[in-house]
Specification:
Helix content: 25-40%
Bound molecules: flavin-adenine dinucleotide, 3,4-dihydroxybenzoic acid
Number of strands: 20
């Protein structure tokens, strides 16, 4: 088997890369460890930056997103018993779109398969070879048979626990990491959102986030311990905790509803540098992880593959390798700014177990400053809606 670009992973990064390359006449094959049902059912991120929305439209997969995605022109920050709105439209002229990663994944898979694109689901034992030479290879097993896929380049889009980053020689990689002393417990619930916009709550019981997927579906998160046991969190306890952290009239208005999904996500900041080794490119979570507070994970994955698709397009059109060589640096500039923003939002909104009373006062002063100063709220807004793409 042969293709131009072999892609490992059918998450947002791998699927969008495949779609962008297809539109430039470049052939790809995606190898995905899980089944199509599993990939399409995985509930994760929900907020798309305006640049991501524009990219999806350009990639011709924006039709459903334009129809059912919810355009949000601001968020609310709740602390000290009050809610404060950050008005993205007024501060930046931009907005974000709330559209589940699950839906985006379905749209991308649908578009690739409709155009005859090749995605091998349930590909087992994928391994990457010879990416330091001209003819890299992907080996895998499917239905008990061994296969070899030769390609010109490999897109390592296989997430944080994937095989691509792990295949790079250790001394060729520098990694930067921070883990946080808490996690998020998230539920998807059949109940109308408590507000038209997302509410990020700083509270002495811990952080809470009120998000949504549609006018009848809420996505809710509470800060919990990293080793929290889900069995100890029946729905009623989660709703009580959400109400306590939200407070005020909104807490009374919050309607409990059956939870369709419940999971715990760890919180970590991680970057691997560089993001290219010869003909292997890392993109998305394979190269970096952000804590979810800034809603940046999925958006960074999209920004990486935009840069990568351009670089490969230039190579196939002209043989020039300038953009390929610039790939890692171009991505990492954006990645580190998203890391900074995600770390800052996380620090400003969560309760840290080892904190001192002095830290609590600083946290509240920071929130007071951010919501009271045009300069500071603009800094939050311009990062949240997404820094400009070059
Ligand atoms: P992924 O979506 O992880 O896709 C990688 C794909 O590669 C997967 O389909 C995987 O099955 C496949 N794969 C892995 N290993 C192999 C292998 N060896 N062979 C073949 N295929 C392989 N971000 C937010 O902004 N907000 C959130 O609320 C949020 N919640 C999250 C919750 C969880 C539990 C996780 C894990 C992430 C969350 N994120 C969130 C982050 C966001 O979802 C990711 O940044 C985004 O999915 C990155 O896309 P990706 O394509 O790079 O990686
Ligand atoms: C969602 C997730 C986030 O991490 C975030 O910051 C905002 C919204 C969500 O899943 O809706």
């Amino acid at each position: 088997m042969r293709t131009q670009v072999g892609i490992v992973g059918a998450g947002p990064a791998g699927l969008l890369l495949s779609q962008l390359l297809h539109l430039r006449g470049i052939e790809t094959v995606i190898l995905e460890r899980r089944s199509r049902e599993y990939v399409e059912g995985r509930i994760r991120a929900g907020v798309l930056e305006q640049g991501t929305v524009d990219l999806l439209n350009k990639a011709q997969v924006g039709e459903r997103m334009r129809r059912v995605g919810l355009v949000h022109e601001g968020i609310e920050l709740s602390f000290g018993g009050r809610r404060h709105r950050i008005d993205f439209r007024a501060l930046t002229g931009k907005a974000v779109t709330v559209y589940g990663q699950t839906e985006l994944t379905k749209d991308l898979i649908g578009a690739r398969l409709a155009a005859g694109g090749k995605i091998v689901f349930e590909a087992e034992d994928v391994s990457v070879h010879d990416f330091d030479r001209d003819r890299p290879k992907l080996r895998f097993r499917k239905g008990g048979r061994a296969h070899v896929l030769s390609c010109d380049f490999i897109g390592g889009c296989d997430g944080f626990h994937g095989v691509c980053r792990a295949s790079v020689p250790r001394d060729a990689l520098t990694t930067y990491e921070r883990t946080y002393p808490f996690a998020w417990l998230g539920i998807l619930a059949e109940t109308p959102p408590v507000s038209d916009e997302l509410i990020y709550c700083q509270h002495e019981r811990g952080f809470a986030l009120f998000s949504m997927r549609s006018p009848s579906l809420s996505r809710l998160y509470i800060q919990c311990a990293p080793d929290e046991n889900l069995d100890e969190w029946p729905d009623a306890r989660i709703w009580d905790e959400l109400r306590a952290r939200l407070g005020g009239d909104a807490a009374e208005a919050l309607q409990s509803g059956p939870s369709l999904e419940k999971s715990i996500a760890p919180m970590r900041s991680f970057v691997a540098e560089p993001m290219r080794f010869g003909r292997l490119f890392l993109a998305g979570d394979a190269a970096h992880i952000v804590p979810p507070t800034g809603a940046k994970g999925l958006n960074l994955a999209a920004a990486d593959v935009r840069v990568l698709a351009r670089a490969l397009t230039e190579f196939y059109a002209s043989g020039r390798t300038g953009l390929i060589e610039a790939y890692s640096d171009a991505c990492l500039r954006r990645v580190w700014k998203a890391q900074r923003f995600s770390w800052w939002m996380t620090s400003m909104l969560h309760r840290f177990p080892e904190r001192q009373p002095f830290d609590d006062r600083l946290q509240l002063a920071e929130l007071d400053y951010v919501t009271g100063s045009i300069a500071a709220s603009t800094a939050l807004a311009e990062n949240y809606v997404g820094l400009p793409l070059d």
